[in-house]
Specification:
two-stranded antiparallel ribbon; alpha/beta; TIM Barrel; globular; binds zinc ion
Length: 255
């Protein structure tokens, strides 16, 4: 007994992450959010928090309020190595403070007066050294790197108190998949085997032509399945964390 592997004992999971919400990608992000929302697909929107106009914050809030969008951090300034590491306190910690200060988070990101930003999308898929893992663990529950073909959960790192960086299954557009048949086939095999289908996209790389040629068709293919749990990336790991915590409690009680 106990909590099921996936919510409501669903067979498989669909989640998504969007990279690079900043002022000049704002319009593309609104488009992508709308396309997910109208199909009741959840997505975690990765915000670059350092240089956002008031107007952009307002647009992010509007999308959160419309539902199906979880705000997550994609760093403060999207720096690469070694600048990122020199400024890691700001890039990792301050970014979540900015999100909490500027937005009203979804209800699943609140507990009493506390607000939580669960996930951190590493800029450029940075490799995590010990310092970075320790820093992320003080603020986030999980991070996402740029590993692809991933269809399961990342393991808990008890040495840091955070999940190991998770990858995604496939990236739609930008530098990878632009063929709706390959996208659909990849989803089908994850669905058949009861895995986690994590779709990643960079909304700034998806214009009308890209949505028409493969984006819309792929989202239509993955939506509306009764035995799939549609969930954002951070909420997926929050549930998983609670399930694993319950397991620990059960084992302790039996001893
Ligand atoms: Zn990025």
């Amino acid at each position: 007994m106990g909590i099921t592997e996936y919510y409501d004992n669903r067979k498989a999971v669909v989640t998504a992450s969007f990279d690079d919400w900043q002022n000049n990608s704002d319009g593309n992000f609104i488009t992508a959010c709308n396309k997910f929302q109208e199909r009741q697909l959840w997505a975690s929107a990765g915000i670059i928090t350092g240089d956002l106009l008031e107007e952009t914050w307002t647009h992010i809030q509007d999308q959160i309020d419309d539902g199906f969008i979880e705000p997550v951090s994609h760093s403060q300034n999207h720096l690469g190595d070694p600048l990122f590491c020199l400024n890691a306190t700001v890039e990792v910690g301050q970014s979540s403070v900015m999100i909490k200060d500027n937005l009203m988070l979804p209800v699943f990101n609140q507990n009493g007066s506390h607000e939580y930003v669960y996930a951190y999308l590493l800029p450029f898929g940075l490799i995590c050294n010990q310092t970075l893992m320790a820093m992320m663990s003080s603020t986030y529950l999980v991070s996402r790197n740029s590993n692809s073909s991933v269809t399961g959960f990342s393991p808990w790192r008890s040495d840091y108190n955070i999940y190991a960086p998770a990858g995604f299954t496939i990236r739609m557009g930008y530098d990878t998949e632009e063929d709706k048949n390959i996208l659909n086939h990849t989803f089908d095999s994850v669905y058949d085997t009861g895995g986690i289908y994590h779709l990643n996209l960079h909304p700034w790389a998806l214009g009308d032509a890209e949505w028409v040629s493969y984006g819309d068709a792929h989202l239509d293919h993955i939506k509306d399945k009764k035995d799939i749990w549609y969930v954002s990336f951070g909420h997926l790991y929050l549930y998983h964390f609670m399930k694993e915590k319950e397991l620990v409690t059960v084992i302790t009680a039996e001893q």
